[in-house]
Amino acid sequence: MKVSWKTVLLWSLPFLVIGFFLWQSFLTPSNNDLNNNVASSRMTYGRFLEYLDMGWVKRVDLYDNGHTAIVEALGPELGNRVQKIRVELPPNAPELITKLRKAQIDIDAHPIKDNNAIWNLLGNVFFPIVFLGGLVLLFRRSGNASGGPGQAMSFGKSKALFQMEAKTGIVFNDVAGVDEAKEEFEEVVTFLKQPDSFTAVGAKIPKGVLLVGPPGTGKTLLAKAIAGEASVPFFSISGSEFVEMFVGVGASRVRDLFKKAKENAPCIVFIDEIDAVGRQRGTGVGGGNDEREQTLNQLLTEMDGFEGNTGVIVIAATNRADILDSALLRPGRFDRQVSVDVPDLNGRLAILKVHTKNKKMASNVSIKTIARRTPGFSGADLANLLNEAAILTVRRQKDAISINEVDASIDRVVAGMEGTPLTNSKSKRLIAYHEVGHAIVGTLLEDHDEVQKVTLIPRGQAKGLTWFIPGDDQSLVSRAQIKARIMGALGGRAAEEVVFGSTEVTTGASNDLQQVTSMARQMVTRFGMSSIGPLSLESEDSNPFLGRGMNSSSEYSDEVAIKIDRQVYQIVSECHEKVLRIIEDNRVVIDRLVDLLIEEETIDGEVLAQIISEYTSIPQKQAYIKLI
Predict the structure, then answer these.
(1) Do the record's keywords include Membrane (predicted)?
(2) What whole-number distance in Å separates Cα of residue 378 and Cα of residue 370?
(3) Do the annotations mark residue 266 as ligand-binding?
(4) Is residue 435 annotated as part of the catalytic site, yes or no?
(5) Tens digits of residue pLDDT in 308-330
(6) What is the model's pTM?
(7) Which domain-ending residue is among 311, 339, 367?
(8) Looking at 435, 559, 600, 601, which residue is catalytic?
(9) pLDDT tens digit string along 140-175?
(10) Which of 47, 186, 319, 421 is at 20 to 30 A from 237, Cα to Cα?
(11) Contact between residue 282 and residue 297 where contact means Cβ atoms under 8 Å apart
């Protein structure tokens, strides 16, 4: 930021003046004569009167309103030479002056230098001037920041970023993995560029498009692409910028935003995180927020009120569509809701191709393999993954990103930073049996995911990890696949029981058991995969305004609850018995794998499958069920 010499002078002038007055007040002594007229000794007032009676006092200088005197005396007690003596005088001694005059002693009074006048001038005149000057300067600076003079008090003005032709550097070709959403917005851009082709057949473009999806899936990136593609004015603002501590400011900013938008129509208004201002009205413990509700009411009116907003297309983004007000979601306001979900395998592949354009990748890196290893990753997660791999490549002093850096980055993103390798032989062997138990059960079960690798390198809170490669589609999962996952999760505990005995099992399977219980309970209460029948006894819905889970009251009787507990126990018990048999039947290959794992610390999935195939046949993995 460039600062002119006038601004520096204006800001420094008050401090220079204040410093001058302080120098005058503090550095200039109030009693210069008293400080310079140093007395050689002190004397009591009574002794001073005796000297006066004896005629030894020659001169008296009074200071401090007559409370202090410097006396020049001459006498035998003083060696017959004149000396200066300091005397503290009592406050009420009117007879002293009379005695001094009768004795014809030279008297001189020195008044105190009065600094109160300076401080009175400073407080009554100078400080108000400086304060008013500072306010004027603040208003002028605020006015310049908001677009012109006179805007310093414009709390109700919109803070939206306005661009006549938004040049974000991002177009639709830079957005991958959300093809359906791109089609919706390509239609919006086409309408803005060629409105006649739509109006000729009586078509109307939606007034509002709501982007809904988890964080990091590319909602804001899509808005930037729209701004880059459309040659129309573009307004962008966050939902939280409408709300202030001042009553009525949010509604005023909404009015000002749409007023500017109508003046530049046709145009696009992008509101990010609209849930900050668009929550349901009248909800929550103790009622709603009046200021936020006023802002929402104004937004509803501007989008589809009495006057309408022809030519203004509102695009909003949120990851909490469940808490938005129903009036905001009705046709005429947000006509369309575009879901931007976590990408599938093909979507991840397209996103990785975009993010690897500016990355130097080694020739042995397969983007498809990375896409297969990252199920559930959003676009932001994939971008972060490749950035971590690039940083690790520089740290290892390599010229290009290899598959080893990518694998290490995936492990770090998913499980955390790498910890210190285990040195205790007993603990290391126990963890090795635990992880091999997971791996061999997952490998020998037909409906389980393939094993990617097994490692004893600690990450996060885990002392060892077994990685699986999920199938392409996770939206539909069969009963056999859920039971296979339950059995795979029980493989670690079962291996501990078979090898070390039931008395030596550890707490390492605590997280596994939580997953097992959760999957088994969902089979019974949500998916209808038990003898109770095809009933959904529990749901994921909860009131977000009362707190997640606060209103999760059971919708079934105590008798049904007992049946649910029995079914969950039966499912887990049956899976546990099958897993114990698998571990016992394959004890030889398990021991071999444990010795290899302790030596190498990491076994790749292909090596694991090859060793297991020498002792038993590995079933062909079935493809996941896909929508037709």
Answers:
(1) yes
(2) 13
(3) no
(4) yes
(5) 656 788 888 888 888 888 888 88
(6) 0.65
(7) 339
(8) 435
(9) 655 444 444 444 445 456 555 655 666 667 778 778
(10) 186
(11) no
